[in-house]
Amino acid sequence: MNFNPLFTRASFHFFNLKNVRVLKYSLIGVFLALASLTAVRGQDPPSNAQPAPDQYFAGIITSLSETSITLTRTVLGKATVRTFAITPDTVVRGGKLKMKSRVTVQWVKGDSGDRAVKIILRTPVPPPKKQ
Prior knowledge:
The chain is of the alpha+beta class and about 130 residues long.
C-alpha cells in the first residue's frame, strides 16, 4: 500500500548510493592503474642524449709540451698521473704554464683520449707569518 504516490524506490537515495559506490571504486581503480603505469615507465634507463657533466682534475704539472700536459696528484699517499691533450680551443687562465705549477684542468673524454677544455693556474699559498 503506497500512501504517497510521489514516493518511489528510485526517489529514495539509499538505493542510489550503491551506484555511487560502484562508480567511486571503479574511478579509484582506474587512477591506481594509471599511477602504476607511470611508475613503471619512470624506471627506464636514462638516454645518452644528455651531455656528460664537467670533469675536473687538479694537480701539479710534471710534463708540459705544446700538445699535451701531464699532471700528478697525490691523495692519501696514492699518486695519480693523468695526461690531457691541449688544442687551440683550450683556454688557459691565471698566467703562463710552467713546470711544478698547481693547476686545475677541466676536461672532456674524446675519441683520441682526454682533452683539456680549460686550464686554471692556481696561485701558490703564502707561508704563514711567524709571530
